[in-house]
TrEMBL record:
Protein name: Isocitrate dehydrogenase [NADP]
Catalyzed chemical reaction(s): D-threo-isocitrate + NADP(+) = 2-oxoglutarate + CO2 + NADPH
Tagged with keyword Coiled coil: no
Segments forming domain Isopropylmalate dehydrogenase-like: 3-335
Length: 484
């Protein structure tokens, strides 16, 4: 029998997990559970990453974690356990399926517009790296990591999944018109992978336009792949289209370890009352069952759930207010009572189970994901970020004195807008400038040259940070300032 790790979570977590496991037990799902210690109470015991080392070991041995929502203590300087789990175990693809559920009234269900959108969200990179610094008391910076191997991994997963499910269309949501290097790289990877799937219609939509189109014509979308933060926002938008967070499941898929959970959180406002809706966690459980090859069990329970919803049975957060709502346990029991019944809309076919046990991986070292190490790298210059409340011309006068024989001062910008050599007096300033120096005559520079400039400039300014201006192959690997 396949064994999986289960963490019940915080808030409503234990209530909805117990309900879902009772449905699994009634359906005689052949899974064994090992309960692990994760969540707020583990943080409270002094474990800084919210899980015990036994829990980590168990999850790494079993390869599958079914988890309830978890709370991360606020203001204690600890990182979100949910994000830590996804990142530590490289669950790089977050798949969230949003489908019309008959019995769950929405604007679209009333208008007869069916929704079946799968969001694939990159799950590890982006601003979720959480690498942030205050570089002056007034200025906070976040590093946004978009990497080629990280993007390729999730985009390949999205195409493969779309192709297997016979998708009509796969769309990349992005903001590459503004973030040309980060989102530009993600988009480039998307079309690179698309070449291997000529039968799949692949296109891209800028993320704000995507949001507008999703709320006006959601039925025109099928699979949508996005970077982490944009994917997070767009997937909550999609949850709203199908009835709210109570119906939003999520699978965090990796090569070795996968995590199945609901999109929603611990719902502290209703925790302990026994009234939470277990549907999202149950839908996440279906993904888990499919993941381990238990297709027939997944479809049988899903048919019972769909039948239950169609017959108007509901928890307090949705459904006909004139009909009394069921509590969490009663709702689970109603599903169990409907085992063997098929819904009128979208019944799932009978299938054969091919239970697969999860492989136990003993990795001897961390995998290095590198796509092309043969690209030539050249340093063209450096962006030096300095703290100052002087005016742009005064900064330039000082910087010019430090440029020496190897560098020329190209421009100065403030929050990405050029303020020297040209600019506007109407541009508001903060006390952090970027002085961009490039090599005179396009000569290649080395790191010692850059450090020399840093040391020299630090005689006049507090230099907060620096970024090299590189060329990779024939591509300039840095953005221009607005107005440059
Ligand atoms: P939330 O999703 O917990 O709650 C938002 C609203 O939706 C609340 O009104 C809540 O009652 C309702 N709701 C959520 N799930 C429901 C369900 N199953 N049935 C009925 N109603 C439901 O979001 P929040 O209040 O912003 O976050 C609370 C906590 O959860 C925070 O500590 C947050 O960090 C954590 N969180 C965890 C996860 C996760 O574990 N993956 C995800 C999101 C938030």
């Amino acid at each position: 029998m396949t064994k999986i790790a289960v963490a019940k979570g915080d808030g409503i977590g234990p209530e909805i997990m117990d309900a879902v496991l009772s449905v699994f037990q009634a359906a005689q799902v052949p899974l064994e559970y090992e309960f692990v210690d994760m969540g707020k109470w583990v943080f409270d015991k002094g474990f800084s990453n919210g899980m015990t080392s036994e829990a980590q070991q168990t999850i790494e041995n079993l390869g599958i974690l079914f988890k309830g929502p978890m709370e991360t203590p606020k203001g204690k300087g600890v990182k979100s356990i949910n994000v830590t789990a996804r990142k530590t175990w490289n669950t790089y693809a977050n798949k969230r399926v949003f489908q019309t559920l008959h019995g769950v009234d929405t604007v679209f269900s009333k208008a007869g517009i069916p929704i079946d959108v799968t969001i694939v969200r990159e799950n590890i990179e982006d601003t979720y790296g959480g690498v942030e610094h205050m570089i002056t008391p007034d200025v906070a910076l976040s590093r946004r990591f978009i990497t080629r191997p990280g993007s390729m991994q999730v985009i390949k997963y999205a195409f493969e999944m779309a192709s297997k499910k016979g998708a009509r269309r796969i769309t990349c949501g992005h903001k590459a018109n503004i973030m040309k290097l980060t989102d530009g790289l993600f988009l480039e990877c998307f079309y690179e992978v698309a070449k291997n799937y000529p039968d799949l219609k692949a296109d891209d939509v800028i993320v704000d336009d995507l949001c507008m189109k999703l709320v006006t014509r959601p039925d025109t979308f099928d699979v949508v792949v996005l970077t982490n933060l944009q994917g997070d926002i767009v997937s909550d938008l999609c949850a709203g289209l199908v009835g709210g967070l109570g119906f939003a499941p999520s699978a965090n898929v990796g090569d070795h370890i996968s995590i199945f959970e609901a999109v929603h959180g611990t719902a502290p406002d209703i925790a302990g009352k026994g009234i939470a809706n277990p549907t999202a966690l149950l839908l996440s459980g279906f993904s888990l069952l499919q993941h381990v090859g238990l297709y027939d069990k997944a479809n049988m329970i899903e048919n019972a759930l769909l039948y239950t919803l169609e017959s108007g049975v509901h928890t307090g957060d949705f459904g006909d207010r004139n009909k009394p709502s069921l509590n969490t346990t009663e709702f689970a029991n109603a599903i169990i009572a409907n085992f063997g019944k098929k819904p009128e809309h979208n019944p799932k076919p009978d299938m054969t189970d091919h239970a697969v046990s999860c492989t136990v991986f003993n990795l001897s070292k961390n995998a290095m994901m590198e796509s092309d190490s043969t690209i030539t790298e050249k340093i063209n210059g450096v962006d030096l970020f300095i703290e100052s409340n002087l005016q742009p011309q005064e900064i330039a006068d000082k910087c010019l004195r430090h440029a020496g024989v190897k560098f020329k001062l190209v421009n100065i910008s403030n929050r990405g807008t050029q303020v020297w050599p040209t600019g506007s007096k109407f541009t508001n300033l903060v006390n952090q400038y970027n002085a961009r120096f490039e090599s005179i005559d396009d000569h290649a520079l080395n790191q010692q040259d850059v450090i020399g400039l840093y040391v020299s400039l630090s005689g006049d300014f507090r230099v907060c940070s620096l970024e090299l201006l590189n060329t990779f192959g024939d591509k300039k690997a840095y953005s221009l300032a607005q107005g440059q």
